[in-house]
DNA sequence: ATCACACTTGGAGTTAACTCCAAGTCAAGA
DNA sequence: TCTTGACTTGGAGTTAACTCCAAGTGTGAT
């Protein structure tokens, strides 16, 4: 698969794909005989994985380290697992914080409902009298 | 309250507090007779609110608009409510995405558990025989 | 009175994460 | 053969969100 197709399919710009590879956020992609990237299915799964983790807020440097360990082979499995466990913990924390914010938003929205109703009643009164 | 105290109490740098005010993310803070910011309790509640919303990922420009409307008075209540409702929707969406990512992380961790165990067994075998 | 210090402002600098650009290569079609 | 267009690279530019800086001011202690 060439870069245009992957970019289209996974909705990530070609520049970003090249950038991610440059900084080690993706394992190096194979080139064909004329030096052009030829993405494998595995490459695509990586890209999709990275995109998903990034969108949930996992830091780039952590993911780079994860990719680096992955490329070193099976003896780094334990270390990679630890990274994921730590990131799960931090993700849970963020989700809890967001839950609190959500509740706060709910509360504020509810109090606007009330205030808006009151304001409407106030406006109405002159008409009623 | 002066800026040092607020900064300390809410754990936001003085520079950030001034920056937020500059870009309209906080209503203008009153100054005392010598031009120094004197934060009221209400100011502090704003700062805390903004900090909370920002940490949940609400965009700065949306919050600036919210503050702007707030300063225009009660006739903007409906508009402010709509902003909060839209932001609640987007927050929920982000939380759902994060939930999916979390599950994916869980799955990956679980499969590492398995693989690590297998690898250990493979290592053990020679000893067992 | 003068020194230190916490504050002020406008503006410059920094960092992360892209995003764009220029110059060059290669393969395919007119 | 020439042109077109998708790709390559290294490096420069951009944007958001701070963060820092320099020059200046007001207040309180020595």
Automatic annotation (TrEMBL), chains A, B:
SMART domains: HTH_MERR. Keywords: Coiled coil, DNA-binding. The keyword Coiled coil applies. GO terms for molecular function: DNA binding; DNA-binding transcription factor activity. Gene3D superfamilies: 1.10.1660.10. The keyword Coiled coil applies. This is MerR family transcriptional regulator. It comes from Paludifilum halophilum.
């Amino acid at each position: 698969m060439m870069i245009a197709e992957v970019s289209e399919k996974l909705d990530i710009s070609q520049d970003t794909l090249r950038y991610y590879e440059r900084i080690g956020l993706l394992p190096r992609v194979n080139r064909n005989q004329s030096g052009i990237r030829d993405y494998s299915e595995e490459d695509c799964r990586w890209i999709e994985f990275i995109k998903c983790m990034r969108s949930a807020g996992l830091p780039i440097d952590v993911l780079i380290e994860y990719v680096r360990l992955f490329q070193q082979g099976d003896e780094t499995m334990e270390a990679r697992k630890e990274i994921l466990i730590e990131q799960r913990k931090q993700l849970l924390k963020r989700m809890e914080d967001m839950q609190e914010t959500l509740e706060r938003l709910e509360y504020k929205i509810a109090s606007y409902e009330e205030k808006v109703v009151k304001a409407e009643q106030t406006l109405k009164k002159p008409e009623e009298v």
